[in-house]
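User
Here is a favour to ask of a fellow structure person. I am asking you to supply a protein in sequence and structure-token form. Please set it down just below, with no commentary around it:

Assistant
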Amino acid sequence: MKVLVDRGKCQGYGNCVIAEPRVFDLDDDGFVQLLVDEPPEDLRAQVGHAVRDCPARALNLGD
């Protein structure tokens, strides 16, 4: 599983960080920052929730 981020779409809501803080963080400007771009499979549910819960649609999953 690979996490894809479109930083141009990110609005800094932080829902991704709330959903999975081991994978997502916000940088100094308040935009999404990946801590792990290929998280382990056991985090798929949490990362999937983060992707679905992004109001700006800035996150996607790839395989």
